[in-house]
Amino acid sequence: MALNIASGNRYIIVNTKSQTVMDLSGSDGVSVIGFPKHGQANQQWELVFAETGWHIKSVSSGKYLQVAGGHQGGSRIVATNVPFIWYIWADNAEVTSARISVPGCSCDIDLSEGGSVAPCTPVQLWDRAEGARNQVWRFEKV
């Protein structure tokens, strides 16, 4: 079985290392964090295919995943009103899960602190590391 995603569908995006999910922080509506799964709208993301990649849009706010600052390791992932293009591609080791990367950059979305299970762990951009499961995400259709 391969990566199975489709434009217009809603997903909960689960980190394969921590099993926490990509969550739009309820405290500021901007920060994207790892958080235990509860399935509410702030943990649901709509994928929208664009010409060269994907927009990832929050169901709760209508904001898009974006990189705060430059496209380099350590930059925070946030939600903004500006659509941003992401590449989503099957991981080499876990082909039913994905890496989410910035076009033209060998950086992937990464759950920081090595994929910590702690609630509110920052989601960030980091240099791609093969075998790093904290950079691999499973898309669970809502």
Automatic annotation (TrEMBL):
Q: Which organism is it from?
A: Agrocybe pediades
Highest taxon in the source lineage: Eukaryota
Name of protein: Ricin B lectin domain-containing protein
What InterPro entries does the record tag this protein with? Ricin_B-like_lectins, Ricin_B_lectin
User: Domain Ricin B lectin spans what residues?
Assistant: 41-126
